[in-house]
Design brief:
With 237 residues, the chain is an all-alpha fold. The chain has one domain: Up-down Bundle (Heme Oxygenase, Chain A). The protein is built from ten helices and two strands, in the order αααββααααααα. Strands 1-2 form a two-stranded antiparallel ribbon. β1 and β2 form a beta hairpin. α2 packs antiparallel against α3, α6 packs antiparallel against α10 and α8 runs antiparallel to α9. The longest helix has 30 residues. It is globular and about 50 Å long. 35% of the residues are buried.
Length: 237
Amino acid sequence: MEAILKKQKELTLHPVYQTFGNIDSIRHFMGHHVYAVWDFMSLLKSLQRHITCVSLPWKPSLYPTEMVRLINQIVLGEESDVTLDGRPVSHFELYLQAMEEVGADTRGIHQFLKSYDLKLIPEGAREFVTFNLELAQNGHVVEVAANFFFGREKLIPDMFESMVGTLKREGIVAPTFLYYLERHIEVDSGEHGPLALKCLDYLTHGDPKLLQQAQEIGLKALEMRQALWDAVLHSRS
């Protein structure tokens, strides 16, 4: 756990956030990060597939109803939150709107969504997405939950606070992007993060081997995130 906390701290201080002083850097960042926003949903849907019933005929879950409710609550928020003016929107769609708002190039992600060919993803982001998709499709449910909690829900509030701080300090006008970031800080720290931790705690149920497995995948997820930020930073130089 100490290694995970150390890596999370490193990520909240990553120099990529300090490049948000101009709009071109933000556009560049979003062109890579959008793929991480997209693949997040595959991890979430993998958990939903494992813990709830999403096939026909419907069958009662093997997990407690509280667990089913936890996952469905997160899915509800991620797939159908609201925009600044109260319209339903998924967080992925909201991010695309934010990209358009700042003039980021969305052609790459739209082309990807036509074929889901991983070769179309920029290098750096491609390795990150490949790792997460492989885990979502073939990983043990404990591994998926560990990636989801340690690599996403536990990390994102602190990580996005760094981004928000730079945007505000530099006076960058990007209300939709700012709303996206602040919404995740609010929801992930206040709702989704605690729910994801409950889910992981239940799945590991104090088993030393499962806890070790969860921590190993959690650390790997953070290392992949660091590699993604490094790639974004270096591709600008």
